[in-house]
Amino acid sequence: MEDIKKIFGSCVFGDEVMKERLPEDIYLLLKAAIAEHKSIDNSIADTVADAMKDWAIEKGATHFTHWFQPMTDITAEKHDSFVSTDKSGKMILEFSGKELIKGEPDASSFPSGGLRATFEARGYTAWDPSSYAFVKDDTLCIPTAFCSYGGEALDQKTPLLRSMDAINKQALRIVRLFGMNDVKYINTMVGPEQEYFLVDKELYDKRPDLVFCGRTLIGAKPPKGQEMEDHYFGVIKPRVAAFMRDLDKKLWELGVMAKTEHNEAAPAQHELAPIFTNTNVAADNNQLTMEIMKKTAEEHGLVCLLHEKPFAGVNGSGKHNNWSLCTDTGINMLKPGKSASSNNLFLLTLAAVIKAVDEHQDLLRISVASAGNDLRLGAAEAPPAIISMYLGDELDSLLDSIIKGERHNDINKTNMTVGADVIPVIRKDNTDRNRTSPFAFTGNKFEFRMLGSSASISDANVMINTIVADAFCEFADILEKSTDFENDVKLLIRDTISNHKRIIFNGDGYSKSWEEEAKKRGLLNLTNTAVSLPYLSNKANIELFSRNGVFNETEVKCREEIRLENYCKTVHIEALTLSQMIKRDIIPAISAYTGSLCECICSKHNASADIDCSVEETLAKSLSSKNAELLRLTSELDGAVKKAKTITDVCECALFYHDTLLALMKQIRDISDKCELEVKREYWPYPTYDDLLFKI
Ligand code: ADP
Ligand code: MG
User: Fold this and answer.
1) What is the pTM (predicted TM-score) of this model?
2) Which pLDDT score is estimated for 1?
3) How many of the other CB atoms lie within 10 Å of CB of 681?
C-alpha cells in the first residue's frame, strides 16, 4: 500500500493545510477558537472559505455541502456547486464566507417533533470549525450544526457541543480547586468501537427483510453458530480482508484513525476501532465510518449490516463508547495517578461519574434505546437493560476501604487515613475482565457498552457529559465554599461513594439472579424502548438539561416524540415486511411442498396400496397445520397494523407496537422457522442463515 503518512488526512482541510494556506493571524485565531470551542469572528470566514475552496478544487471537488446530522442517525447533505458568474457573466468558481458559515436546508424534510408546527419550517446549518472540513465524492463537506429558526437543535451535533461546553465549564471549576490554573479547556474524549456484519450482496437482495428492515425477520438458526469460538481473531477471509484494507485507506484519507480491524464473536461479524479523539470529532468520524463502510462493502459485492440484531440467535452488534476527560494540558482526569493530590482529583472524578450514573440510569438507558437495540440488550450477549457499573477488584476494594474509613493495603502498603492517599496503579488487565457490565472502568476511561451499532454516538455522550457536568457542579458548589479542602474533598468522596454504591456490580450481568438483586437495590430495569422513552421528559430531566444548557423543555419533548415515532415506524415497516414475506412467499412455498408430498402419496397409492406413505403423510399434516396457523397469525398481524394506525397518543402507540405487534411477529417467526427446517431446500424462497453467515 502507499505510504500511510501521505494518505492520512489527505482529504481533510486539517491543521497542516490551514497552517500552510491561511494567513498566520487568521490561522492562529481559528486554531485557538477550535481548541477552546470559542465562536469565531465572522470576518475571517471569507478568507477561510477561499482557502478551503482552492484546496478542495485541487482535490477534485466541484461542489460543497453543509454536512449535518438530523435526528435520523444518518447524515444529510445538500450539494451546491462552486460555479457562479462574475459581473460580466463569465463563469467563476466561488465560495464565500457566508456560504461557509450558514446554510438553509428545508427543515420540513427532517424529523423535528412538535417543532415543525411551532416554528418556521426553515432550518439553518451553521459551520462547526471544531470538526475539520473534508472532501468526499468530489464534494467539499463542511461539518455543521442544524437548528430551527428559533435556534432549537434539530440535530445530534448541537446538543453534543452544548454538553461538551457544560462539562468543560464544571470540570474547569473542579480542576481549579486542585490549583490547576493553567488548564483552559477540558475535553471529553471518545473512542467508539464499531461492530458490523458483512453479507453477500446477491443473497442480501433476495431477502426483503434485510433490504427493508436491515435485519432478518425469519430464519432458522444454523447448526453451527459461534459456539466453537473459531471466528473471533480467526484468519480474516480474503474477501473481507480486501474490504478492510480498502476501508482503512478511505478512512485514513478522511482523517479517521481506524486502528484495529478484527473479526467479532459471531460468524460474518467484524469490528473496527478508531483511536480516540474529542467527542465531537469522534461522533463525526463515526458517522463517516458507518457511511464509508456501507459504500465500500457495495464495491466489494458485499453489504454492511449495521443493525443491532441482523440475525436472531446470533450475537448482535454494538458500539463500545470509551469515554474519558482530558485537560488541554494533557491530564486525563480518570487516570489514577501517583501523587496524593492528583489521586484525589481522580477519586473525585470517579465519584462524580458513579453519582451521575446512579442518579440518571434512566437517561443512559434512553440514550441507547431503539427498536433494534431492544433485541440485543439483555439477550445474554450484550449488557442487560439494567444500568450498573463495574470498577474491577482493585478499585472496588479501594472504594470499600474509603467507605469504611480503613486503610487500603492491597498493593501499595503506604499508610492511609481514609484510604484515599495512595491509589494503586490500576493495571488495565485487572479492570477489563467483566464483559457483561454496561458501564465498566477500564484503566483510565469508562467504557459504556450499551450503544447500538447503527445509532449515532451523540445521544449517549450528550447524556454522559450532561450528568457528569451536573455532578461536578454540585461538587464544586460544595468545595468552593470549603475552608479545609483536603479534608472536605475526602469526605465528599467518601459520602458520594457510600450513597451510590448500589450502582456498582461486579458479578455476571447476564445472570437471572442479577435481575432479582438489581430490583432489591432499587435499580431501574427498563426492558424496552416503549417503556423507557417516556422518562426523558420527566420534570427532573427537563430541569437537568436546562440548568446545564443542553436542551430546553421544547427540545426535550420533541426528541422524546421523534424517537417514539421512530420506534413505531420501525416496527410498522417490520410488520408490513413480515406479513408480505409470509403471505407472498412462505405460505405458497409451504403449500407447494405440501402439494408435492400429496402428489407423491397419490402416485404411491396408484402404484400399489401396499406402499408405505406415512412419512409423506406425517410431514404433509404437520406442514398444513402450521401453514394454517401462519395464515391466521398473519391476518391477526395485519389487523394489528391497522389498529396501530388509529392510536393517536405516541406513548400508547409505541407500547402497542411492542406488546402486540412484536409479540405476534415472534409467534409467526417461530412457526416459519420450524417450517424452514421441514420444507425441502429448493422450495424455500429465501437464502438461509447458513448461506448468509458462512458463505463469504
Ligand atoms: P479494548 O480492549 O476494549 O479493545 P483498547 O485499548 O483497544 O481496548 O481501546 C478501545 C478504544 O478505546 C479505542 O478506540 C481507543 O482509542 C479508546 N481509548 C483508549 N484510551 C482512551 C481514553 N483515555 N479515552 C477515550 N478512549 C480511549
Ligand atoms: Mg472495548
Assistant:
1) 0.92
2) 55
3) 7
Whether the per-residue pLDDT at 449 is higher than 90: the answer is yes
Q: Which sequence spans correspond to the domains of the chain?
A: 4-154, 156-192+318-549, 194-315, 567-694
Strand-pair category, 439-441 with 389-390: parallel
The strand pair at 186-200 and 139-148 is best described as unpaired
Q: What is the pLDDT of residues 261-280, one digit of tens each?
A: 777 778 889 999 999 999 99
What homologous superfamily is domain 194-315 in, according to CATH? Glutamine synthetase/guanido kinase, catalytic domain (3.30.590.10)
Q: What is the CATH number of domain 4-154?
A: 3.10.20.70
Rounded average pLDDT over 389-412: 78
Q: Counting ligands in written order, which one lies closest to the CA of residue 437?
A: 2
Q: What percent of the chain has pLDDT over 90?
A: 72
Task: Tell me which residue of 669, 646, 674, 676 sits closest to 572, measured CA to CA.
Answer: 646
What is the distance between the alpha carbons of residues 524 and 519, in angstroms, rounded to a whole number?
7
Site to probe by mutation for ligand 1, drawn from 167, 276, 326 as the one with most ligand atoms within 8 Å of Cβ, is 276
309 lines ligand 1 (CB under 6 A): no
Pocket test for ligand 1, best of 445, 448, 451, 461 (most atoms within 8 A of CB): 445
Least confident of 191-200, 219-228, 298-307, 343-352: 219-228
For the chain, what's the residue count?
Answer: 696
Fold assignment, 567-694:
Four Helix Bundle (Hemerythrin (Met), subunit A) (1.20.120)
Q: Residue 115's pLDDT band (boundaries 50, 70, 90)?
A: low
Rg (CA), the chain: 28
Instruction: Please tell me the residue having the least CA distance from ligand 1 atom 17.
Output: 191
Task: Please say if the pLDDT value at position 228 is more than 80.
Answer: no
CB of 324 closer than 6 angstroms to any ligand 1 atom: yes
